[in-house]
Amino acid sequence: MVKAEGVHKRFGRLEVLKGISLEVEPGEVTCILGPSGSGKTTFIRCINHLEKIDAGRLWVDGELVGYRQVGDKLYELPDSEVCRKRAEIGMVFQRFNLFGHMTALENVVEAPVRVKGIAKDRAAAAAKELLTRTGLADKVDSYPSQLSGGQQQRVAIARALAMSPKLMLFDEPTSALDPELVGEVLDVMRGLANDGMTMVVVTHEIGFAREVGDTVVFMDEGVVVEAGKPREVLANPQHERTRAFLSKVL
Amino acid sequence: MTSGGAASPVPPDQIRAIPVRHTGRWVAAAVIAFLAYAVAVSMATNKRFQWSVVRHYLTASPILHGLVITLELTATSMAIGITLGVILAVMRLSPNPLVSGASWLYIWFFRGTPVLVQILFWNFFGALYPRFAIGIPLGPQFTHVDIASHITAFLAGMLALGLNEGAYMAEIVRAGIISVDEGQTEAAHALGMTRLLTMRRVVLPQAMRVIMPPTGNETISMLKTTSLVSVIAVTELLYSAQIIYARTYGIIQLLIVASIWYLIVTTILSFGQYHVERHFGRGVSRNQSSGALLTWWSNVIDVPFFRR
Lengths: 250, 308
What we know:
The complex is a heterodimer of chains A (250) and B (308).
Chain A: E1 2-11, E2 14-24, E3 29-33, H1 40-47, E4 55-60, E5 63-64, E6 67-70, E7 73-76, H2 79-86, E8 89-92, H3 104-114, H4 120-133, H5 149-161, E9 167-171, H6 179-194, E10 199-202, H7 206-212, E11 215-220, E12 223-228, H8 230-235, H9 240-249
Parallel strand pairs in A: 3-10, 3-11, 8-9, 9-10
Antiparallel strand pairs in A: 1-2, 1-4, 4-5, 6-7, 11-12
Chain B: H1 23-45, H2 51-58, H3 61-92, H4 97-112, H5 115-123, H6 125-128, E1 131-135, E2 141-146, H7 147-150, H8 153-179, H9 182-190, H10 195-225, H11 237-248, H12 251-280, H13 292-300
Antiparallel strand pairs in B: 1-2
Helix pairs in contact in B: 2-12, 3-4, 3-8, 3-10, 3-11, 4-8, 5-8, 8-10, 9-10, 10-12, 11-12
């Protein structure tokens, strides 16, 4: 589903990604761990082209991200094409980023109606179902400012799911939450994983990675230090850096 | 908080203190009341005010006609200004240096010259370009319009005020757009919304909260700035009053008439502004208060002195 080969990204003179290569199979949950500044958020943002990569190649579902290749020439994709591809990838942000001027329901309905052109009443019915599934049936008419962090993040997940994505990206979805609200968001994500959704999750929740992850990737300073089954990487890390990190967070 | 025991008329921990005496406030209030009284008496007893003349002309048909022109001019030039302002603001934020540069140049020029000069300029534009033709410069022409005969004084005034307003509105809109969190744009992009759709559906509606209050001020300011077009003989409120006092010499009376109308419209506009702001503030405040008129009024006279 996702394939990265030697992905590089620099911001000015700072090289954030120094050649990331990894592969995510359909239906698989990949958890990316690592200290802050290791480039994990930047990498996940490259997957739906919120950041342009500087070198290497990145494919989603067999198609190059952000470019079209003809022969050995790369053509940048126009905005409309980039948007069409992004519509197939759901993304959940650390700080929720719900549209503040819309109710929970309007947040979920917006993209299906405006981007996919689905009829309003059909989209609303589907949105209500999604909000019920995420346990927010009684919050459909609330504005984000009236919801707790955990509720906002669950609306954000419903909003992403409303586009029926084939891949879900989670960028530290529980890092901005009060500790007691983390569980309700992880429960929704666990449900998604059980339904067979392909997920890439940047997280600090080691427990979630161990339990739900099919693959755990440990990143540091812009490179993949270690990747593999959670049992192997988390229980028996091969690299000194991974061991040092895990000893601090476990 | 107290429970059990004998029911005492005053719970022991309730504070019944004698409030601080605000002597200064009472002295100031007395002085102001006296001054207000003095001014009122002088206005009522000074025969030269000729209030009957003011009353007579307040609803005279040339004045009402002038008022309508003033309102039309305010509405149309604000419409031009806001439309232009949004376009210029989006251009100003464009990554294309030519586009943002063009917007910068426009704002620089129209903010940098007095609006009175611009009004006069547009009025005499016909002398500079008697004909407006669509075609290729120095090449063939497809169609043309005679400007000298088409640009009326009203049109010149509307154009001058609208184009000038566009420069100011551009800065207001730009500030509003910048105030919207970048995460909103990212979330919209991640959902597959195009840049234009994101601007229209996500950024601008939220920018409105920041844009609205200064736009209300601009509208109220525009209402009064329209009086400048009296110099090019547009029969708006002030010029209508001037025409009458040129004949009757009741200068003060007619200026009072015009002022009363400006005050009435300003009051109505500020009431409207309050409602529009409330509409665009939705989703921000946790408790959306009811009783709009009362709240508006309490905002107008928000004086702690009256609250005990």
